[in-house]
Amino acid sequence: RCMHCINVMTKALSPGDDKGVSVLLGGKRTLKIGDTMGSVIVPFMKLESDEDFEALEALAEKCIDFFAENALEHERIGETIDRIGLANFLSGVGVELDINMINHPRTNSYVRTDDFDEEAEKWRQKHGSRRASGDSVAAAE
Q1: CATH superfamily, with its number, for domain 19-101
Q2: What's 25-71 look like in SS3?
């Protein structure tokens, strides 16, 4: 089998010059549901000096304090983030939103809505919808 991609990948993926951490919260390992990846809180934080480590410790303290104040009984931090939303959690902790925090980017960047009514009618006819075109929701009830 061809091993070209694997041989080239080691040159493309190499450690950079910046040394630091990415901070994720809320991941867990369960046997019944399956593993859950944590939410990205800080995409990259440099750790080169003592001040950088102190900033990381301060962030951890803010996250723990916010969680202690807002969590429900027997709730984990990932469940709290899911319940209140990542944006609310980040604003409560004092972290600004970053584009690198996106969990799932759009798979289709181009959406057309000019033929929506016609396509919706085709779908209704294909799937046997009870409503005909032109009927309102109130009339169907």
Answers
A1: Sulfite Reductase Hemoprotein, domain 1 (3.30.413.10)
A2: ECCECCCCCCCECCEEEEEEEECCCHHHHHHHHHHHHHHHHHHHHHC
